[in-house]
Each structure stands twice: as structure tokens, then as C-alpha cells.
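Quick question: what would this complex look like in 3D?
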Amino acid sequence: MRDEPGVQPLTERGARTRERLLAAAREVFEERGFLETRVAHITRHARVAYGSFYTYFPSKEAVFLEVADRLFADMTDHDLVPSAGPEPAARVRRANRAYYEAYRRNAKMMAIIEQVATFNAEFQELRRKHRAASAERSAKAIARWQREGLVPSDIDAEMAARVLASMVDRSLYLWLVQGNDPPGTERLLETLDTLTVRALGLPS
Amino acid sequence: MRDEPGVQPLTERGARTRERLLAAAREVFEERGFLETRVAHITRHARVAYGSFYTYFPSKEAVFLEVADRLFADMTDHDLVPSAGPEPAARVRRANRAYYEAYRRNAKMMAIIEQVATFNAEFQELRRKHRAASAERSAKAIARWQREGLVPSDIDAEMAARVLASMVDRSLYLWLVQGNDPPGTERLLETLDTLTVRALGLPS
Amino acid sequence: MRDEPGVQPLTERGARTRERLLAAAREVFEERGFLETRVAHITRHARVAYGSFYTYFPSKEAVFLEVADRLFADMTDHDLVPSAGPEPAARVRRANRAYYEAYRRNAKMMAIIEQVATFNAEFQELRRKHRAASAERSAKAIARWQREGLVPSDIDAEMAARVLASMVDRSLYLWLVQGNDPPGTERLLETLDTLTVRALGLPS
Amino acid sequence: MRDEPGVQPLTERGARTRERLLAAAREVFEERGFLETRVAHITRHARVAYGSFYTYFPSKEAVFLEVADRLFADMTDHDLVPSAGPEPAARVRRANRAYYEAYRRNAKMMAIIEQVATFNAEFQELRRKHRAASAERSAKAIARWQREGLVPSDIDAEMAARVLASMVDRSLYLWLVQGNDPPGTERLLETLDTLTVRALGLPS
DNA sequence: CATGAATGAGAGTTCATTCAT
DNA sequence: GATGAATGAACTCTCATTCAT
């Protein structure tokens, strides 16, 4: 009992051990899922003693939160519509592809994230915030396009942003995580692009 | 899951007990989620002896599968586009509303279904089949509309059906299960209708 | 998880198992003390499975409380002054001897009781109540003797009852539990009697 | 306990660290009890590195023994009858009050001492010796009073000393440590004085 | 069939002590 | 000496499933 476990290590060596645990945790979570992961798996994978885990993390949940937090940061570099500029359809397309790449890179963890989100309220909240921030940025882009006359003004920008994000997100989940269908990825991406652009009425 | 030991009760009394267990299971699953549900909770709720559970179901998973199977039947009475006919936009609209109502009615179980789908392969497969069947029907409708010139022929009917189903499904999940947003339901439904119709290029 | 553990068993067989656990618990507590007792020791001693312990008791504390409660009942059949009547000095003497016998019979558990009382607030309260009830009875006897002119009226009956109970109780504890001194028991009892009688000014 | 590794610091700085650990240990023990005290609590409180604890003390028990040893010294400056002289009743009274004050000052540690005495044999022995030495002094006083004709000669001086010490000690423990009773302290002290004096038959 | 007791392999967490720096 | 990380044996409590009645 160092009493406030999970504190940042004070030495170089401690920092290394902590990183090893984080990396091992991610790998084991990806391999076995959150529920089937034992703290012992993580420590064995990181080649540290069982007890060392609790030197840096108060629980299995805590290490997961941190792994997921890093992943969210990686994922949200690639928003639906990252920046202003001409050719909105091309931008949508590019954003979708970027998100697809990020999703593919992190597909295994995305599966575990969905798992944990179904029973851990704290984590649900974390994910909700990330989603809201991301949707907010997309909504801003849509609203700008509406002011520029590129998107019909009868569309609810905020809601459309959320709904379209759900569309892309869930499609990629079923595709990449649950492997719901073999036919070519390009067909999926093409459809996501087309439907998004047409749903918003963007000139293509 | 239909040939496990003791599944089909032979007597009238046995059939009653089995039904009580199924009803109790659904209520307890809704209340606590799959992971937090104990077999004892189910039997207590059903006012049945602990051991009787295993007379009718080989495991906690088995009773869940059966509860979920019944629910899927209820949900898929309301497909994206239930039947042929004129006014496709109105049909999309009606289908979305019907699905929304069904989802709302079963929201708690939908949450648990998502939960179990994240770790139980057998259940994943069951859900995948339901999804595929449902998407197939939607794809048929879209294809018909394409032959009738109501939907552009450059759209991949099957993929569009899946992607749009993901959009609606996920939006309702975040809305009804995770309560992600306070603003009015009507805004959400309106957006789902509009985006679907425009994505498909249907006349409105 | 039968959810409200520690419930009374519903069958004859369950009642037997529960009794075996209680008896085993007492013996193991006496042998090793509360802190050094493991649930596994108790179940092994009772020849039941580890998990069966938790069918009947929610924790080690709970089984201890019940063991102690039974012991308190046994001990308080022998109060400082059990009943009214003539010859108070003889009554004091008889009460002291009776308490001594009870203490000797239960000496090992008295040691454990003292142990648990030093850290478990719930148990402290239980013991406080027993002590208060016992002191109350002694105080009544002293007050009666005061009304009969056998004890000086300047004595605080209630406080004297508590103080003299402490004297007897603690002396027996040090004697029988901590074995503080070999010389004859009779010397101790004689001293307890004499000091009690003279402290109260009773005719001897 | 004085020849364990690293007990006697060789440098000035080491002596200071050791004192800080001792002081911190006492405070933490008082705050949380022996069982709930972690070595980490002590070092944190002393603002000393975790490992430094083991530079000066071989174990948690060892530091407690030393804290308790100092406390015993403080307590036994105030014996039942500290010195010879006239007016024995007044002396008893004064000794009781002095002991009360000392007890009150150290009440929290007295609680922990009782706790440790219930499971640590080495500490039990230490306390037994202190008690024996103290009782010995009281017994000497009583014997002297017997030779002076102030106390009846049928009293067993040594045993009476022990029994009366138990009475005072236990009453103060229940009063000050377990807070067994709200009514005024003066009532308790008065009763202790009176009963002691009368039990011994001292002229008052 | 019904009942409820019995089972025991885990799993997470603790923390005194040791050790490398 | 001082520092704080590393260790891992314990220990409690859980609960799906089996079994005796």
C-alpha cells in the first residue's frame, strides 16, 4: 500500500516499468478482451512482479482507462471534417479515409472499448465526452457549409453530425471488429463517402 | 441451444416454470445487465428453487440467448422498408418511426444485447444473421427503387442498406440506451429520415 | 452468492452444517486468535468446503459475533449479585466464584473477545451493552443494600458497580488469560471477595 | 530490540531521522491503531523515504515496542502510592488523580497498547514486567501500612495491590478509551478513591 | 421435478520486507 | 544513509455448476 496507487513514478526506472505495464496491458486487452484479462497476464507479459502492477495502477479498470485515453487521443486527430477550405466533398472523403485508417490500426482496442463501455459508467462518460467534442467540430463544419450555401439550411447541423458519425463509426466497427462481411473495403468506404455527401447535399 | 438437457419441458407444470424463468431472466437482465446477473437473482425473481434453473437451461448464457432470440423476432417485424409500394420517402419515414418505437420498447434489453455481443461469439453470430437478413430486405427495396429510377444506380444497394441500418441503429442506441443527449427526440428522428432519404436521393 | 448470506438454513442438513461451522469457528478462534484465523482453517476444521462458509456467514467477523454472542449469554447467567436475600457478603462471594468458574471455562474465548474489542467497533458496542446490563443489575443490588442500611449511602451505586466489575473482570483476565502469576487461585479469589466486601462496607 | 540491524544511528543526521520516525509512528498509531497502520503511513508522516524505515527499525513491531517503552516510562512516574509518608488516604487519592492525568494524556496510545497486547507475546511480556514492578511498589506501601497498623493484616498485600491496580486501570480504560459512559469524571475518580481506601480499610 | 445445500477453482488486492541505485 | 521501486505469498470473497434428498 503506497496509499495513492497509480501515482506517477518518481524515478526513471519507475517510469520505464509503468510504460511497460501500459504497453503490456494494451497487448493483453487486445488479445483476450477486458473481461478475460487477468492482472497476472499483464504483469507476466510486462515481466514484472504481480505486486508491481499495483504500484502504478489501482485496478484493472484504471490501467484500461489510461490505455483508452491514449487511444482516443490518437483517434481524434482525424475528425470527420478536419479543417475549413474548398471542395467539401473531397474533405469528407479524406476525413473518412483517415478515420478508417486510424480505426484499422486500433481495431482490436476499439472492440475492447465497446465492451467496457457496456458496463463501466465511468468509461461511458469518458467516451461520451470524446464523442461530443468530435461531433461538435463536425457540426461547426456543417454549419459553415450552410452559411456558404453548400448544405441546405433545413438540416440540423449538430444532429446530422452525430448521426453521420454514428453511421461511419458503427459501419467500421461491424466491418473491422466483427468482420461482418468479406467483400472489399473499397465498396464500404465508397458507400460511406457517397451517402455522407448526398445526405448533406454537398456538390460532388 | 435447443437440444441441451432438459430444455423442452414435458409437463404442463414444467412449461409454466420454464416460462417464469424466461420472464424473470429478461427482467433481471434488464435491471442488472448480463454480467451482474446471478442465477440466484433469476430464480428468486421467478420464485423458483435455485436448482430448478438447471432443469430448464444448461447455463446463464443459454437463457440469455433464448430471451434475445424472442426479442429479435419482435424487432424485425419492423424493417427499414417493410414493403413495396409508392411514396418511398414516406415508407422510409414510417419504417424509421416503427423501428424507433420497437427500440424504445426494448431499450434495456438492447443495452444488454450489445454487452453480450462484445464477448460471446455464439451470440455475435446469432446477431450477425439477424442483421444480415434485415439488411437483405432493405437492399432488395433499394434495388427495386433503383430499377424504378427512384434511386441513382451508382449506389451499392447492399452496402447502402447496411450502412444506413448502422446509422439508424447506432443513433438510437446512443440516444435511448446511453442517453447521450437531452434535446428532443423529434429532432433526431427528423434528421434520420432526412439524411436517409437524401443519401438515397429519393424524391421527397 | 445467495445474496443475503448468513441466513438461517432451511433444511435440517443446512442447520447441521451451520452448527458445525460455529463450533469449528470457536475452536479455531480459541486456538489461533481472531487475527490468525483463516476462513480456510474453520472450514477445514468443520470438514466442509471453503465456499460453504459463505453460505452461512457473510464474513469472519460475522461468525465471530455469533460465537461471542452465545458466550455472553453463558457468562451473564452469573452476575455479581444474582438475587436479593440475606447475607450480602456471602452473596458477593458466591457471585465472584460463579463468575470465576464461567471465566475459567471460557478463558480462551475471553482472550479473543478482548482482542476483537480493540479494533472492531460493532463488537465494542455489543460488549458495551452486555457490560451495561450486567452493571445495572449489580447497581440495583447495591442500591437495595443502601436502603437496608448495609452499605453506606455516600457510595455511588452505579459507579461502584462498574468499578468493582472492572476489578473482578480485569483481575480474572490477567490471571486466567495472560497467566500473569502462578500463585494460588484461592489467594486471588479471597482478595477479590474481601476487597469487594470492604469497599462496599458490607458486614462480613 | 536494541541489537537489531541499524538501530543505533551513528550520525547526527541519522539520529534526527530516527526521532522523526518514532514521533511519526506514535502519531500514526494513535490515529489508526497498530493493525491499520502501514509502514508507508509512518514514513510519509515523517517525510522520510519508505526504505529509510528499515534503516532504523527491523519491523513495524519494533518501532511500536519502542514507542510503548517510552510511554511506560512516562506512565510509571505515577504509581499507586508513590512515596511513604502520613495521610495514606490522601496519598491514594493523589496517586489515583496523577494516574488519571497520565492516562488521559496517553489515552490513545493506551488503546493501541491493549490492542497489541492481545496478539504479540513479546509485548505482553514487556507489559507484564512493567505491571509487576508497579504492583511491587504498591504492595510495599500496603505492607508498610500494615506494619503501621493502618491496614488490616489479613489482607494479602501483593494480591491487593494487583487487584486494585486492575480496578483503577480497567476503569480508566473503559472510561477514557472506550468512552463507556457520559456522566462526570469526578464521580468515577471519587468512587475509585473511596473504594480503594475502604477496601484497604485506611482511615479517611 | 423441485429443492436448496455443497463445491472449489479462481480473481483481485494488500503490504511487510528486500533490493538496486 | 537515503530513496523508492520490486517482490510475491497470502488472504478474502465470488458464484456457476453439481448433487443429494
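Answer marked as accepted. The domain at 69-200 of chain C is CATH 1.10.357.10 (Tetracycline Repressor; domain 2).
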